[in-house]
Amino acid sequence: MSSGDVVIDLGAAEPWRAPDAPPPARRRWRVRWVAAVVLGLVAGLLPGAAAPGVPSLLHVEIGVQRVVMGGGRMFVTRYTGEGPHRLETYDTGSGRWLWGADFGDGQQQVAGGDASVVLIDTAFAGRALAFTQVQARDARTGAELWQRAAASVDGLAGGVVLLQDLTSFRQVDVDGGAPPTGLENRIVAVDARTGEQVWELVAPRGSQISFERDAGKQAYAVRSMAVLDPGGALRVHDLRTGAVVRTIQLAWSGNVGMFVLGDRRDLPQPAGARGGQVAVSASGGLRYQVYDLTSGRLVWQIDAEQSAWIFGCAPGWWCTGGNQGMTGYDAATGAAVWRSEGGEATLGADGGRLVLGGVGADGLAVPGVRIVDTGTGATTRRLERWRPVFGFGDRLTVFWREEGRPATVVGQLEARTGRVTVLGRTETGEGEPMCDNDARSVACVIAGDLTLWRAPQTRGGGVAS
């Protein structure tokens, strides 16, 4: 057993009860307290593990398809076997049931939520665009607030929801991924509570829109938006008003395939790439060009392999990733400074550490997580049996399976130390886990079965990341 392989049996989770009969207060607290202390002592003696804390907060056994967290709530999509899917909402700190509602025709996923609203996006599969819609519900009560047809959710920024208008797209365009450069790209911002339009933006043909996601929150949280047009004008927009707050002229010409902004110096966030830079590629091209945002001049360029993409992966580094592995480039010079093993994906970064995980040909995680020092490129830690969970959230969830049993052990990895905090185990089958988390708890769905665990705490009282 390696130092990263830790098994701590927390026992069976409590059974889920119907929403109209919320779980009663737990009894036998003295027995559970003693058990938790014993488990904590055992975990403390095992290398690479932290004490798992209390047992699970909630266990939902049947038909769970998706879980999304936001605003202190956990939004669970469930299929009951009859009738439409259901949306059930729980408090992430206690597992307490809050409210539930039936989904309408075609509604199968929650696109995002915060303390004010939860957004429901109609699935595209097998449906004409004319019948797609976004629905907003009150996150506290579940009451429907508004609906908008022919739209999908791009992001949520405070009191504004950013919607992609789909009226000018063909079905094949949407199914194929990002909007093609030959079509008009229209973003509509609406009030999160009323659905009333606040502003709209129509990007010129040949342009692309880039959303800066908040790395410390869920995937739908957006904190800035920029548009790069074929003439090289890069415009940054205010999310509340849609107004242009900054314009940079780049020495770029031609249709834009994609662009990625480097870190902003005025915002705290996990460091990656170089603040004051932008990486651009042409439509259908495999060459990335990096520009300085102050002068607009080209700093360096590289030719990337097919299926590669570029992203800010570490302090002072841009990285490309693709079928043949990943390469790190010095943001100032473009010199290749680091090369990863093939079949790996970037899972996260924390200061001077980069976390990488193995990906199989089927796109699923394979055993093996390693931590790389971004100053030297050296591997500082390997966790041979842990697999990464690809999902939402800013903390890395990992898991491994017990041999010969349908049991899955779930934990959270701290990139700075390589320490894994074991959350618990389930015996629900061998499906690929889908997890989400917030500051209070971690939820994982495995083969239709959901377990909610309390998030690990650091010694300083904060949440381990």
TrEMBL record:
Keywords: Membrane, Transmembrane, Transmembrane helix. Pfam families: PQQ_2 (PF13360). The keyword Transmembrane helix applies. This is Pyrrolo-quinoline quinone repeat domain-containing protein. It comes from Dactylosporangium darangshiense. The keyword RNA-binding does not apply. Residues 88-251 form the Pyrrolo-quinoline quinone repeat domain. It comes from the Bacteria.
